[in-house]
Amino acid sequence: MSSNVKNGRQINNVVLVHGGFVDGSGWESVYTMLKKQGYNVAIVQNPTISLADDVAVTKRVIAAQDGPVILVGHSYESVPPHPPKR
After folding, report:
1. For the chain, which has fewer Cβ within 10 Å, the N-terminal or C-terminal residue?
2. Residue among 48, 45, 54, 52 at smallest CA distance from 21
3. Which helix (H) or strand (E) holds 45?
4. What span, in angstroms and rounded, lies between the C-alpha atoms of 49 and 47?
5. Cβ(1)–Cβ(39) below 8 Å
């Protein structure tokens, strides 16, 4: 396992988030590789109904982890990282 340390604590949790209009199955090979390296891995299955719903599901998966998380995301089509101010 690599040295992923935050505040002196090893980070063992990885949360994988798929992109828009697909599902979490695309992470299968990454999941398998990380599990073999000893990580606790969760794949978010977003409903892809709305951005708000997807964010809520992702937050729930992160909250369910037992410590700090490495969050890995795939593209979400053309959604900007921060919505433009109006």
Report:
1. C
2. 48
3. none
4. 5
5. yes
Domain range list for the chain: 12-46+60-76
Report pLDDT digits (tens) over 17-58: 987 767 788 899 999 999 999 999 999 998 888 888 888 999
- The pLDDT value recorded for residue 6 is 58
φ, ψ at 74 (rounded to 5°): -100, 165
pTM, to two decimals: 0.77
d(CA 77, CA 60): 22
Residue with tokens 């599990």: 35
Backbone phi, then psi, for 28, in 5-degree steps?
-55, -50
pLDDT digits (tens, 9 = 90+) for 52-86: 888 899 999 999 999 999 999 887 655 555 555 55
Distance from C-alpha of 85 to C-alpha of 20, rounded to nearest angstrom: 23
